[in-house]
């Protein structure tokens, strides 16, 4: 289970936000990047682990299906406000 999820906004363009971040899985730190964008019914989040983090997960024995589940957990945490937001843009 992912813990201590931190999101840093890198770019704002209207209602669109590009971000990067990190999350802890056991004693490992995984990096990710993504976008938040509006749609009918509310915001959508699309976050994906970096290639480096995918290699870490593979080394830890995670199958592609398990990685997808972790990414779903990550997206849900960001969407529901369960991640710590760090505003690097100072706005």
Keyword list:
91 residues; alpha+beta; five-stranded mixed beta sheet; 2 helices; 27% helix
Report the radius of gyration as a whole number of Å.
13 Å
SS elements, strand count: 5
Order of helices and strands: EEEEHHE
* Net shape: globular
| Overall number of domains | 1
Number of helices, counting only DSSP H or I runs of 4 residues or more:
2
Beta fraction of the residues?
Answer: over 45%
Q: pLDDT under 50 segments (min length 5)?
A: none
The amount of helix comes to: 25-40%
Mean pLDDT: 93
Helix and strand composition category: alpha+beta
Sketch the major β-sheet.
Answer: 5 strands, mixed
Distance, first to last CA: 31 Å
Order of strands across the widest beta sheet? Answer: 4-3-2-1-5
Describe the fold and architecture.
This protein is an alpha+beta fold. It has one domain. The chain has two helices and five strands, in the order ββββααβ. It has helices at 51-59, 64-79; strands at residues 3-13, 16-25, 28-39, 42-49, 84-87. Strands 4-3-2-1-5 form a five-stranded mixed sheet. β3 and β4 (42-49) form a beta hairpin. The longest helix has 16 residues, at 64-79. The radius of gyration is 13 Å and the shape is globular. It starts with a strand and ends with a strand.
